[in-house]
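Amino acids appear as letters; backbone shape is given numerically. Here is one record.
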Amino acid sequence: MPVQLTTALRVVGTSLFALAVLGGILAAYVTGYQFIHTEKHYLSFGLYGAILGLHLLIQSLFAFLEHRRMRRAGWPLKVPAAPSRRSVALCIAAYQEDPDYLRKCLRSAQRIAFPDLKVVMVVDGNRQEDAYMLDIFHEVLGGTEQAGFFVWRSNFHEAGEGETEASLQEGMDRVRDVVRTSTFSCIMQKWGGKREVMYTAFKALGDSVDYIQVCDSDTVLDPACTIEMLRVLEEDPQVGGVGGDVQPPGKGMAVEDAQVRAAEAQSVHQCNISREQ
């Protein structure tokens, strides 16, 4: 059977199944039919719960079958040599992070198995109480000529106290210079929220790298995350972004199950990689 026809049938079948489940849930909710219930309904089990349970069971079954199919096909595949020639920057957004979490994040970034990976940490805040994050950066990634930092009174959209037009432009140039010339860089800037932090990283990097990877400062990254996600992007030009499978603390590292979650929307604790425009 042609691949396109198979894909179309899967899309139609999945859509019909979703509509059937939604219709069943709605009907069960309206009728309120219950199989088992105790006095005053301390314990009850009805049609609504049965449909939800069946839906979860079917989802788990198909997830298992898909996982087995991928394993039989030899996934994960060997990483081709081509992606290693691409340049990638890991951008870490930090805001009043727990010191232990930040250390673990930076140490995991240091262990990522990707040649010449650039690490850019932007701290949302430049006050004295934020200085400990710069100290942790120096502790983990500093101490070499590869590391650079800059404490900026402003950000790209709001001037800090005492800034003139000339000093603001000088600060912007300094941020770009530190980010582009350092393997590990830390920029502390005027508070502006997470979007402002990411804007600084993207603006400073510009077109100096092929791909940008992002994560929060409480994420522990798997050493293979960058090369695994990059492999997906390189193999399929229609994929513009790849998200990782994030596990809660104590359940393991944020292993980037890229082939399963390709092009998934970003969330605040995910690690993602996308093509630089």
Notes: The first strand starts at residue 34 and ends at 37. Residues 1-73 form one domain. Helices lie at 3-31, 47-72, 99-110, 131-140, 165-181, 194-205, 225-235. The chain has two domains: 1-73, 88-235.
